[in-house]
Amino acid sequence: MAKISYALIVALCVVGGLAGVLVNNQAHLKTHVDALGPDEAPQEIFDETPLEPEATLFLCTFEQHACGMRNQKNTRSRFKRRSATLAGKPGYHMVVDAQEAGYNVARLITPYMPVYANTTACVAILYVVNGPGADRLEILAQDSANRPLLTLLNGASNWNYVEKSLNVTQDVRFFISAYTKSKAEGVIAIDNFTFNLLPCENEK
Q1: Is 94 domain-assigned?
Q2: Is residue 31 situated within a structural domain?
Q3: Is residue 129 one of the residues assigned to a domain?
Q4: pLDDT tens, 83-98?
Q5: Which pLDDT belongs to residue 14?
Q6: Is 137 contained in some domain?
Q7: Are 135 and 182 in contact (CB under 8 A)?
Q8: 93-96 long-range contacts, Cβ below 8 Å, gap at least 24?
Q9: N or C, which end of the chain has less CB nearby within 10 Å?
Q10: Which domain holds residue 122?
């Protein structure tokens, strides 16, 4: 029988010991994996359908404040928040007095309204345009472009309600312009400005 060197015997013992350690570790790993509970095991990931966005509503009655609306700086005429009974309606309104404004334009700018892209929204407002010094009220939307929405002419001596649908592509704000044509008696007023991320229901 061939003689086996002492070094070879030592090497075989070391290899055998390592093999035993590996077997023991594999057995421990298998036991650990088998012991995983159902809540620990990897779960299959499914794509979830996005939730439908909730409709948002911006309503300003002007009773407490102007809701972040401001007058454009480079116009000489101004909308003023006034408490009065106007055309039979008490409370606070945003008003332009033709006798104060003369031949001029007052422009009120709303804050930006957050929207969901490519959504049909609705703008609604109560308004009065009355008297020989009052000309018209115009509302323009500004998102990715400037878009005229409404032109409301003189002849509304009582409060009138109007609404208009529009498709919005990004956050939008509105310019509300009151045009007066002389210092003759006349008033242009707005109230209950509403922006809703739903189509208008009573648009004419």
Answers
A1: yes
A2: no
A3: yes
A4: 999 999 999 999 999 9
A5: 43
A6: yes
A7: no
A8: 93/62, 93/189, 93/190, 93/191, 94/62, 94/66, 94/69, 94/189, 94/190, 94/191, 95/187, 95/188, 95/189, 96/134, 96/178, 96/180, 96/187, 96/188, 96/189
A9: N
A10: 72-196
Higher pLDDT, 102 or 21: 102
Please measure the distance between the N-terminal and C-terminal CA atoms of the chain and give it in whole angstroms.
111
Is 143 within 8 Å of 169 (Cβ atoms)?
yes
Residue 29 tokens read as 């790993």
Give percent of the chain with pLDDT exceeding 70. 73
DSSP state of 132: T
pTM comes to 0.72
Determine the Cα–Cα distance for residues 193 and 56; give it in Å rounded to an integer.
14
Give the DSSP H or E segment for 186: none
pLDDT of residue 174: 97
Q: For the chain, what is the domain count?
A: 1
Q: What is the CATH number of the domain that holds 83?
A: 2.60.120.200
Neighbours of 149 (CB within 10 A): 16
